[in-house]
Write a structure and sequence with these properties.
- With 342 residues, the protein is an alpha+beta fold.
- The chain has six helices and 14 strands.
- The strands form four sheets. It has a five-stranded mixed beta sheet. Strands 3-14-13-12-11 form a five-stranded mixed beta sheet, covered by helices on one side.
């Protein structure tokens, strides 16, 4: 039971998920927030790695914690300060009566919004310019169940990966028995998505690249060799229509880190705070005799989707500051007429 080829899909190819972005660039700003709104009853887990994570409500997602669901996931810039953006997502959900009920009133709810951050402080010029509650509220308000933008948007606006512009990438696939698996990644890694020798990504994405010219490869190598790894991390979500238990959602997220390790090298360093959330919308189930085989196929599909999403984050990025985009250094690698962000 194997997965089909990973497609240039979106996290929202898993029905019920909605994705929204907001960002601000210029006048000292270079940051943003991405929000994933979850359908009622979604099961959520998490796996946090690296030496410098910035997270909120991840203890809630431990298998031993009482509640197995969440109502949204907030991915944001701003380092630890940016965790404030999750408050805006909570406010958005509270306004709509969405959350864990704690009283008889319709709006007596507590929305559960786990969050993870990337470090992008000061990259736009103003150290104090970082996401706050208004960013989370705007991103949640913008969330749609259709294909969302990728590249230098939302939480990927101020992202950097080994001296190149980072960004947001997505991918999806369908497992043999019809289960949908998808991913969204915000790549702000200390490691590199690009092999300095070939000038191509370690892992393929959705863009059919050609080998860059010798001149472009030389310029790319020079730039990558001179880059100083900053305080960085990669964060994201893997999702599936498969029915997964809470602990299995955590395993789903953990195996997605295998995809991260394929796409970004090195990874999980002391400078990274890599965090992946695993989400099950609980629509598709196998027969009990096929469950282990079926679950392994879902986990592997999640890893491959997350790897492709990491690559696409960099391939679709455009420069939002002093860091050049890959497409600036290796334009000949792209097909004619390529437009970033699809």
């Amino acid at each position: 039971m194997s997965a089909a080829r990973v497609e240039p899909g979106c996290l929202t190819d898993v029905p019920g998920l909605r994705v929204g972005h907001t960002q601000r660039v210029g006048r000292g700003w270079r940051t943003g927030t991405t929000v994933v709104l979850l359908p009622d009853g979604a099961t959520v887990g998490v796996d946090v790695r690296g030496g410098g994570p910035g997270t909120r409500e991840t203890d809630l997602l431990h298998p031993s914690a009482t509640i197995a669901t969440a109502h949204a996931v907030c991915l944001t810039g701003g380092s630890a300060y940016g965790l404030a953006a999750a408050g805006g997502v909570m406010r958005f959900l509270e306004e709509r009566g969405i959350g864990f009920s704690v009283g008889p009133g319709t709006h007596e709810v507590v929305p559960l919004v786990p969050a993870a951050v990337i470090f992008d402080l000061g990259r736009g010029g103003g150290f104090g310019n970082r996401p706050d509650e208004s960013f989370g509220h705007r991103a949640a308000r913008a969330a749609r169940g259709t294909r969302s933008p990728v590249g230098s948007v939302g939480a990927g606006t101020g992202a950097r990966t080994h001296g190149l512009q980072g960004g947001v990438g997505t991918a999806s696939t369908v497992v043999h028995d019809g289960v949908v698996v998808s991913a969204i990644a915000v790549v702000n890694a200390a490691g590199s998505v690009i092999d300095r020798d070939t000038g191509l990504p370690w892992e393929p994405g959705s863009v059919p690249l050609r080998r860059p010219t010798a001149t472009e490869r030389a310029a790319l190598r020079t730039h990558l060799d001179a880059a100083v790894p900053p305080l960085n991390t990669t964060i994201g979500v893997v999702a599936t229509t498969a029915i997964l238990r809470k602990a299995e959602c955590g395993k789903f997220a953990a195996v997605a880190h295998d995809g991260l390790a394929r796409a970004v090298r090195p990874v999980h360093s002391l400078l990274d705070g890599d965090t992946v959330f695993g989400v099950s919308t609980g629509r598709d189930a196998p027969s009990s005799t096929e469950r282990v085989k079926w679950l392994n196929a879902v986990l592997e599909a999640g890893a491959r989707c997350f790897a492709a999403a990491c690559t696409d984050a960099v391939l679709h990025a455009v420069a939002t500051g002093s860091d050049p985009a890959y497409r600036d250094l290796c334009p000949s690698a792209y097909p004619r007429g390529f437009l970033p962000g699809r």
